[in-house]
Specification:
heterodimer, A: 112 residues, mainly beta, 12 strands, globular, B: 114 residues, 4-stranded antiparallel β-sheet, 0% helix
C-alpha cells in the first residue's frame, strides 16, 4: 500500500514571505511518480509538477521550487515571495501505475 | 480539445435516489478513474478503469458502480444515495507511455444528499 502524508494542515503567511510545504510518502515500489497539485478557491485541480522516482534533480519554475529526496521519501514544495494568488489548497500525490494516492492537503493563506 | 468533461457540476439528491455522474474524455486515454474529495481527507479513489470493459475498485467503492463500455466514457452510478455520499467528485483520465505520466482532471461535481 502507498501513503502520502502532508503534516501541515494550514499555513498562513504575509505576502512576499516564502512558504515550504512538506510531503512524505511511503511505497514499496521502485518505480513511481510524484505530483503536486494546486486547488484554488474555484475548485479545479491545477497540475504543478510531476517527478519520477529515478529523477532526483530538484527543479525551479519561476517562484516555485521542488526538493525531491529519495533517502528521506520526501518531495517538498517551496513558494518563494508568496502572493495573494497563491492562496489555495496544495496536494501532494503519489502514482504507482495508474492509481493516484493523495495527501490530505495543505491550505495556504497569503495575506496582503 | 475539451479534455475531461464532467456533468453535472452541481446536484442535490434526496436520500435513496439514484443518479449517474457523467465523465467523458477526448484524449484517447487508457485509464480513467473517479475520486471523491472530503474536507481534510484529500482525494480518495472510488473506482478505476484501465481500458474499455475493465473496471476495478479503489479505496472507497461502496455505494458506487461503474462501467466502461467505450474508451471515452466512464460514468459513476449512485444506486441509493446516502448523506455520507455528499462530496465533490472528480473524474480523471491518464496515459502511460515511455515512462511518462499525465493525469487530466475534470472540473468536479458537487453532490449534496439530503
Amino acid at each position: 500500500a502507498q501513503k502520502v502524508t502532508q503534516a501541515q494542515t494550514e499555513i498562513s503567511v504575509v505576502e512576499k514571505e516564502d512558504v515550504t510545504l512538506d510531503c512524505v510518502y511511503e511505497t514499496r515500489d521502485t518505480t513511481y511518480y510524484l505530483f503536486w497539485y494546486k486547488q484554488p478557491p474555484s475548485g479545479e485541480l491545477v497540475f504543478l509538477i510531476r517527478r519520477n522516482s529515478f529523477d532526483e534533480q530538484n527543479e525551479i519554475s519561476g517562484r516555485y521550487s521542488w526538493n525531491f529526496q529519495k533517502s528521506t521519501s520526501s518531495f517538498n514544495f517551496t513558494i518563494t515571495a508568496s502572493q495573494v494568488v497563491d492562496s489555495a489548497v496544495y496536494f501532494c500525490a503519489l502514482a504507482n501505475d495508474y492509481k493516484l494516492s493523495f495527501g490530505a492537503g495543505t491550505t495556504v493563506t497569503v495575506r496582503a | 480539445n475539451a479534455g475531461v468533461t464532467q456533468t453535472p457540476k452541481f446536484q442535490v439528491l434526496k436520500t435513496g435516489q439514484s443518479m449517474t455522474l457523467q465523465c467523458a474524455q477526448d484524449m484517447n486515454h487508457e485509464y480513467m478513474s473517479w475520486y471523491r474529495q472530503d474536507p481534510g481527507m484529500g482525494l480518495r479513489l472510488i473506482h478505476y478503469s484501465v481500458g474499455a470493459g475493465i473496471t476495478d475498485q479503489g479505496e472507497v467503492p461502496n455505494g458506487y458502480n461503474v462501467s466502461r463500455s467505450t474508451t471515452e466514457d466512464f460514468p459513476l452510478r449512485l444506486l441509493s444515495a446516502a448523506p455520507s455520499q455528499t462530496s465533490v467528485y472528480f473524474c480523471a483520465s491518464s496515459y502511460k507511455g515511455q515512462g511518462n505520466y499525465g493525469y487530466t482532471f475534470g472540473s468536479g461535481t458537487r453532490l449534496t444528499v439530503v
